[in-house]
Task: structure prediction
Amino acid sequence: MRFRYSLFIILSMFLYLTSNSIAQETDSDGDLPSAVLGTATALRGESVNYFPEDPKASGYIVTPDSEGEKPALIIVHEWYGLKLRIKEMADALADEGYVVLAADMYSGKTGSNSAENRALVKESLSNPDYIIRNLDAAANYLRSRDDVISDKIGTMGWCYGGGVVLSYGIGGEDHEATAIFYGELIDDPEKLKHIGHEVLGLFGEKDGGIPPSDVRKFEKALRTAGIKNEIHIYDDVGHGFFLWVDKRPETKKSATDAWQRLKDYLKRTLGD
Result:
């Protein structure tokens, strides 16, 4: 299938990692969510078995406080699996007005060190059909809910998850948004033309595994394929600059700008 080769490329590039042309950062007065600052309070969502094929795949679902139908997001974790920080990020996105499902791509498993994380990534990406079925099930679960606008579903992911959502945009069921945070890339316009919506991609200039030259090739391929996109490379930061600002305070400016760009993008693609 067309996404199998894409995921193979992601795997081979990902194992190298331990992480538009360059534009000026936008001025943003938006504060970062507590999820990336390490100050989030207790989770308010719940576990959900959204994928009947794999009962071990336990996702995390959280909804906005307000009533009525909402757009929805499927978010995909980093290489360590569905841990607390991703669930906290789901809560933060629910605060922005989205029904959020954090998918579990590892059948309940998580890693606690680089070796374990790398093994989980390798195992996961060796079965691309499972990944697509998993995310299709996540999308179908959201569409079945009374509180979700069925034609307003997007995906986003970080690192491993960023590459996965890009491949899902190519090979999965139709959806309305793909936001990639420093995920592995595909620069074949023939593959990318299967994406049916605008793509957001946010990257770090000092990312050793996804250098700016690769990002520019990706951007060029999107343009060639006729895919609307917003691609941005942040000066002076590397891989993983967004989710862990509490551990990397020097990334706060870039992360704040990325958060505002993400909110604007989701409003454009999933808003009314």
